[in-house]
Amino acid sequence: MPIRVSYFFQQRPNLLAGWSTNFWSNASSFTALDVIATSLESSIERLQGFECAGVARRYSSYPFSRSVQVEFRGRATNFFAQDLTGEADFPTTALLLRVYAIPDYSASLWIRGINETLATMGGVYTPSSEYVKRINELTAKLANPANQWAIRALDKAVPARVVVNLTSAGVATVPGHGYGADDRVRISRARGLTQANRIWRVTPLDSDNFQLQGWQIPVPAPIYLGGGMARKQVYIFPQITAAKVLRTTRHNVGRPFGLFTGRHQRRA
Prior knowledge:
By secondary structure, the chain is mainly beta. The protein contains two helices and 19 strands. It has a seven-stranded antiparallel β-sheet with strand order 11-17-14-15-16-13-12, with no helix packed on it. Strands 4-3-1-2-9 form a five-stranded antiparallel β-sheet, covered by helices on one side.
């Protein structure tokens, strides 16, 4: 049973500035996952500035990813306990982490709250040798088969099928679609009746036609001009086999000292 691990971090209690980072795991139980998740959280914290810290952790199961299985794990937090001397500038400074799984799956996520000195001249990634060791510590844990960290990805083996007709009543014709009741299907690249281009729950009408649940007849109703592909949304959770940092980002928005939100320049 895939489990989503949501880490909640915060920057300085007085700022009330927080963010989350989500990972997926194929661990056999919450008990086994708890040890692994605690270890990964420690590695993430070691990448952050001294005033950032993890404040809670939540586990939830797939496909009911919002059904919390273990409640928030609040704990006493010392926001100035990190051994990195530089401050973090959430959310403007972050590492882009890329994770990979066999045969050719990948996903990206941001590690926020990092030391702002890590990105110079508007975003040039300049880690110290010690920081590289900490990055390697994190990526090694993610790629370790024993930890069972995974990627949530659409199954590439599920074919995309050609849409041959769409009606203003929200009926799609896809010969031999094979979809079941309440399957989630993405319609894309339909011309004319572009309101259909999104993910829908479907109700099969016969082997070639299905109804888009929740469809609202557009007024005035555009004419379907052809095109379109339909693909059932089937997620798999292949195990992470490699991870690396691609780049970092830093945006100077002119934020006044001590404030979470900032001023954005307006173009002339």
